[in-house]
Design brief:
The chain contains 13 helices and no strands. By secondary structure, the protein is an all-alpha fold. The longest helix is centred in the N-terminal third of the chain and has 32 residues.
Length: 375
């Protein structure tokens, strides 16, 4: 999850910044690159400027399809656990199982991404995610699924995502020019959150009509869109960095950089607090939908889609603003509004109020994540 875009403490962040600096003159002054297909006499609206780059356009469209499937699985899996157990504790266990690998592996994952071919890494992670989705679908169809199996698959998918997420973030730099980087990050967030609207709603309908297995199966199929997009992209040959330090020493250098750079430390600390205490509200949404509001699978999907609507609004606003100056002010506002929106959600017993609170939460969550990532 995929999760919202966030700052990844890659140990080689400085190298990627230098790579951007080396490419800036080429991107801004040279004739259009091969991956940009411009329509004569037309310019892309500022909101979608990064889509003029062919490679980014392919990856964005493939990622959008895949993310719809991912959100279908997130909603269907939580509902499956709730149906099997009725336990909020086990919902938390499954969520922990999928998140803990990212906590452990995200920093070494960032190092691996900087050392090896990002497209090859994404081939492997996307194909593995496809396989795991098909396994879960098969277990449900065969009526063999148990909670421990879901936990094991969640751990495996979490390990894959710990490598996949920094790879997807890092490859964006190779797909769009420096001038379009803020727009590309915002459009990636837009894709994630358009999927957050469509995926849960589709999952709610599917689960109500056919059961959860179809949601898992369609998620597996959706990864084919990214695999095809990766195959169609035209990228320069990968040049491995001249790296002599061990992976752990390189990671330690990155952590030391974070510790000594007060701006980076503040940004990552703010996002860490939000990720630990605020973002996990989604884990308990099946319980909130079923026990508090008395909704079924379709209603649960609608609640999850409401968050996506606010998130899409935020992503489109950020994409339209481009590389604006007041990022810190907007980040501060979103940091305050996000927890307030969830307090309102916790107090609500009326569906329209809950939906409104979730729209605001979605807006502030994405504003927070995308701005932190950009800064």
């Amino acid at each position: 999850m995929s999760t919202p875009a966030s700052a990844t403490p890659d140990s080689a962040a400085t190298d990627e910044t230098q790579a951007l600096d080396r490419r800036e003159d080429v991107d801004l002054a040279a004739p259009p690159r091969r991956d940009v297909q411009a329509v004569p006499g037309m310019r892309a609206p500022r909101t979608f400027a990064a889509l003029r780059h062919r490679n980014f356009r392919l990856f964005w469209l493939g990622n959008l399809v895949s993310l719809v499937g991912t959100w279908m699985q997130i909603v269907a899996q939580s509902w499956l656990v709730y149906q099997l157990t009725g336990s909020s504790l086990l919902l938390g266990v499954v969520s922990f199982a999928s998140s803990m690998p990212a906590f452990v592996l995200s920093i070494p994952g960032g190092v691996w991404v900087d050392r090896y071919n990002k497209r090859t890494i994404l081939y492997v992670t996307q194909a593995t995610s496809m396989l795991l989705a098909f396994v879960l679908a098969a277990l449900v169809v065969a009526n063999l699924v148990q909670v421990w199996q879901i936990v094991v698959l969640a751990v495996l998918l979490g390990m894959v995502n710990a490598i996949d997420a920094p790879a997807r973030q890092a490859i964006t730099i190779d797909l769009a020019s420096r001038e379009d980087l803020m727009n590309a990050i915002a459009l990636n967030s837009t894709a994630f959150n358009v999927a957050r609207v469509v995926g849960p709603a589709a999952a709610g309908i599917l689960v109500g009509l056919t059961g959860v297995a179809m949601a898992f199966f369609l998620n597996g199929l959706s990864f084919a869109a990214v695999l095809v997009a990766l195959a169609m992209m035209r990228l320069p040959a990968h040049t491995p960095p001249q790296q002599h330090d061990s992976m752990w020493k390189t990671a330690a250098v990155g952590l030391d950089y974070i510790r000594t750079n007060t701006t980076i430390l503040a940004l990552i600390s703010l996002l860490a607090v939000s990720s630990l205490f605020v973002l996990p509200y989604g884990t308990l949404m099946p319980v909130f939908a079923g026990d508090v509001l008395g909704l079924g699978a379709t209603g649960y999907g609608v609640l999850m889609s409401a968050t996506g609507i606010g998130a899409v609004i935020a992503a489109l606003i950020l994409a339209s603003l481009g590389n604006f100056r007041a990022k810190g002010i907007l980040l501060t506002v979103s940091n305050v509004i996000f927890p307030l929106a969830l307090i309102a959600l916790a107090a609500s017993r009326w569906l329209p109020l809950a939906l409104a609170a979730l729209v605001v939460a979605g807006w502030s969550m994405v504003s927070q994540g995308a701005l932190t990532n950009t800064l």
